[in-house]
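Private note to self, pasted from the team thread so I don't lose it. Backbone tokens:
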């Protein structure tokens, strides 16, 4: 994309309404604009990031055997009356009436809807296990929407729902999702700490929140330093029951993660040198809830001997839009965003330091073509200083800086945003580093 032709409305001033750095940078870098309290429009650069994150989430869900669907945002209240949650859900639910005076709602989550859909499509124990997910907008009328997309009212969530014949099967599904989550956050460049969460009346230990570390986070977290480097995940586990058991055992040995609300079950067992304490942002939550929805909503399948089985379910959420803010909280400096390669809107920015000069223009056009949609070309009639500042603000992993002196010698300057390192290299070397 050519910057002169693109809609990336960056801001020089710090927006006064934004309290935390990710919110400020998302507005300043032209990623989003608020359209009403807690509701955001995603502009071209922000939308690219959101889609990149969603794609990584999708690939890891698929690898774990989950199947993608797409359910609607608007739901019938009757579904929620079947599960008994309609009256209890409270003011976070946006309730709507259609023209026939029927009660509808904008879905805050989809347990009821998926249970009904699944109920209509399975008959026998042979149809299970299954796990269905979608990546869809949710609405929760939060009392205090704040921190930009981190606590919005409309937000994008990946939510998966597993169906198993019994508890043992549900444990396998749960562990699969936990492994998929650890891999997802690792690919996003994040250190995610699984923290034991409340299971309420369900009991047991099958509920975890995933917390990424950030000083501005709303959750306190105490954890084992073992989670700071999870390279031991790589290539080590498949999605087989025995591998998953091995994985879960390894994770459990590190599970001291806890918050103020939880018992210090676990904290005392961590060797002192490995104890860490911090604040973080909840980016995911996985939960086994047994027959909480399948029972009242009459989801039954015939077992091998003809008796009716009530499936065990779990649900697994990731805050896809919250992750955009969370990633910026983890990767930024005073000058702006430092996107991890995996989610950046473009891999590189091309900075033409002398717009209108034939030699720099030819090099820029050449490299722009060779990067095939992976680059944002700053072809504006702007001072070099403004181009440097905007590229740092927008956070492209690489900057290819093309000036007249380099053009005469056949070299460009290549800057790595994450480290600030600069090298003078040939065009080919720049391209191979960026695309490599
Ligand atoms: P929180 O405790 O932050 O309010 P939650 O426990 O209500 O979140 P879940 O129902 O577990 O959230 O939803 C799954 C994921 O969706 C969360 O882990 C979070 O990443 C994301 N999420 C929840 N509420 C919001 C929101 N208001 N804005 C953006 N993302 C959200
Ligand atoms: Mg939660």
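Design output:
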């Amino acid at each position: 994309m050519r910057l002169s032709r693109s809609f990336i409305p960056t801001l020089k001033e710090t927006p006064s309404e934004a309290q935390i750095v990710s919110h400020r940078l998302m507005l300043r870098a032209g990623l989003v604009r608020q359209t009403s309290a807690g509701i955001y429009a995603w502009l071209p650069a922000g939308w690219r990031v959101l889609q990149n994150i969603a794609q990584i989430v999708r690939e890891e869900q698929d690898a774990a055997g989950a199947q993608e669907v797409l359910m609607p945002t608007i739901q019938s209240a009757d579904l929620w009356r079947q599960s008994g949650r309609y009256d209890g859900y409270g003011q976070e639910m946006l309730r709507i009436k259609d023209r026939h005076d029927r009660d509808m709602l904008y879905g805050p989550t989809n347990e009821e809807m998926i249970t009904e859909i699944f109920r209509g499509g399975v008959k026998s124990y042979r149809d299970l296990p299954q796990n269905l997910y979608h990546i869809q907008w949710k609405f929760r009328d939060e009392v205090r929407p704040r921190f930009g997309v981190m606590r919005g009212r409309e937000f994008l969530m990946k939510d998966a729902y597993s169906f198993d014949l019994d508890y043992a099967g549900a444990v396998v599904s749960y562990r699969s999702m936990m492994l998929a989550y650890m891999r997802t956050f690792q690919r996003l460049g994040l250190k995610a700490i699984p923290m034991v969460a409340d299971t309420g009346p369900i009991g047991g230990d099958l509920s975890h929140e995933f917390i990424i570390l950030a000083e501005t986070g709303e959750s306190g977290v105490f954890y084992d330093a073992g989670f700071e480097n999870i390279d031991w995940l790589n290539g080590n586990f498949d999605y087989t029951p025995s591998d998953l058991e091995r994985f879960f055992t390894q994770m459990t040995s590190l599970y001291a993660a806890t918050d103020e609300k939880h018992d210090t079950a676990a904290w005392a067992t961590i060797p002192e040198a490995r104890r860490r304490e911090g604040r973080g942002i909840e980016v995911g939550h996985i939960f086994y809830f047994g027959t909480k929805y399948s029972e009242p909503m009459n989801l039954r399948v015939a077992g091998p001997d003809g008796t009716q089985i009530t499936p065990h379910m779990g649900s697994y959420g990731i805050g896809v839009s919250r992750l955009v803010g969370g990633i910026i909280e983890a990767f930024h400096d005073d000058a702006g965003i430092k996107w991890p390669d995996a989610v950046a809107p473009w891999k590189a920015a091309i900075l033409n330091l002398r717009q209108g000069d034939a030699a720099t223009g030819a090099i820029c056009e050449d490299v722009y073509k060779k990067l095939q949609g992976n680059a944002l070309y700053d072809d504006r009639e702007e001072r070099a200083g403004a181009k440097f500042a905007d590229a740092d603000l927008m956070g492209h992993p690489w900057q290819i800086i093309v000036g007249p002196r380099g053009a005469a010698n056949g070299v460009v300057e290549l800057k790595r945003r994450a480290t600030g390192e600069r090298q003078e290299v040939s065009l080919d070397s720049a391209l191979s580093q960026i695309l490599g």
